[in-house]
Amino acid sequence: MAYEHGELKIFSGSANPQLADDIVVHLGTRLASCLLSRFPNGEVRVMLEENIRGADVFIVQSTSHPVNENLVELLVLIDACRRASAQRITAVMPYYAYGRQDRKARGREPVSAKLVANLLVTAGVDRVLTMDLHSPQIQGFFDIPLDHLRAGMIIADYLKTSRDLSNVVVVAPDAGSGYRARQLAEMLDVPIGFIDKRRIAPGVSEATNVIGDVEGKCAIIIEDMIDTGGTVIEATKALLAHGVKEVVASCTHPVLSGPGLERMIEGPMSEVIVTDSIPLPKDLPPKIKILTVAPHLGDAIWRIHQDLSVSELFQWRR
Predict the structure, then answer these.
(1) Is residue 2 one of the residues assigned to a domain?
(2) Rounded alpha-carbon distances, angstroms, from residue 252 to 52, 111, 132, 213, 225
(3) Angle CA 12–15–17, to nearest 5
(4) Residue 197 catalytic?
(5) Could you say which of 9, 160, 197, 282 is catalytic?
(6) In a domain, 202, yes or no
(7) Are residues 110 and 241 in the same domain?
(8) What phi-psi label fits residue 75: left (phi over 0), alpha (psi between -120 and 50 degrees) or beta?
(9) Do 51 and 125 reside in the same domain of the chain?
(10) Could you give the C-alpha distances from 128 to 125, 148, 239, 284, in angstroms and in order?
(11) 3 lies in a domain?
């Protein structure tokens, strides 16, 4: 059915095809057909296998590992859709790569998050739909519309149905997670605590102090992403040392590079809650709880397609 912006067409890159499948199932439609392969020298090959002239195109592609491979594939897909005369192209990026490189921390460093924004616009994208940017100011790197969804409501809904919240405290494992932790604490109507963290080296941190009433409680750590897992492990140790009876770690993006996955499985947390913004192995222990963001993204795609408000998806149920 055609609307003002043309027929809805949803393509999937190769980064997270299961999430794309779940999105179209939620919307009651199907994925548009395209061929994704590699030339013998490793270059990305894309071939759209149906007409998209005048269509409202959405390309679902997380720029997770392998980051550069998935990013280039997304750029090539955008270019193919632009040259095939799509009326509007939206990049649906559940995980936005290079988000931690959002400023010059030292001299002679790039601002790679801004470079990725420039590449997307140059390729021909008209708007971006993403989730839980590491730095919200990345929205300002774009001169095109960007819709920024948050997975906090999804995590909050799961916690409301799976746990007794009468003895829960939400904990921000570092200063950068304070806003995210406060939002989750308000959704759950529970108190909040903070950990004073000192970063020793890239990927290496040390939790030095716990602020807030946490003794005897179940602490919910909230992060935008868990990468190597060092911050979560150090925060968990600090909380247990301050009398917390149980620690639950949660995040939107399970990057889990290097020892990250092993640390989450073997660490002292009782549960690790993540979403499927980044695909994970299927044979994980029950300790790793994967929540889907497909309905959230699907609703946003439909609202964008219909020119409806996306901000209504940000409101949570008390």
Answers:
(1) no
(2) 32, 23, 7, 25, 6
(3) 50
(4) yes
(5) 197
(6) yes
(7) no
(8) alpha
(9) yes
(10) 8, 8, 38, 31
(11) no
**Residue 212 belongs to domain with CATH number:** 3.40.50.2020
Count of positions (residues) in the chain = 318
What pLDDT, in 10s, does the model give residues 258-283? 999 999 999 999 999 999 999 999 99
Enter the pTM of the model. Answer: 0.93
Judgement on whether residues 136 and 185 belong to the same structural domain of the protein: no
Same domain, 113 and 218: no
d(CA 275, CA 293): 6
Q: Give the residue among 97, 12, 23 at the shortest CA–CA distance from 57.
A: 12
Cα separation, 26 vs 136, in Å, equals: 28
Tell me if 200 is assigned to some domain: yes
Q: Is 50 exposed, middle or buried (0-12, 13-18, 19+ CB in 10 A)?
A: exposed
If asked whether residues 16 and 78 sit together in one domain, one would say yes
- Please report which confidence band the pLDDT of residue 201 belongs to, taking 50, 70 and 90 as the band edges: low
Q: Are residues 309 and 286 in the same domain?
A: no
Q: What is the domain extent for residue 277?
A: 152-292
pLDDT in tens, 17-57: 999 999 999 999 999 999 999 999 999 999 999 999 999 99
Tally of domains within the chain = 2
Q: Are residues 222 and 236 located together in one domain of the fold?
A: yes
- Single-letter code of the amino acid located at 184: L
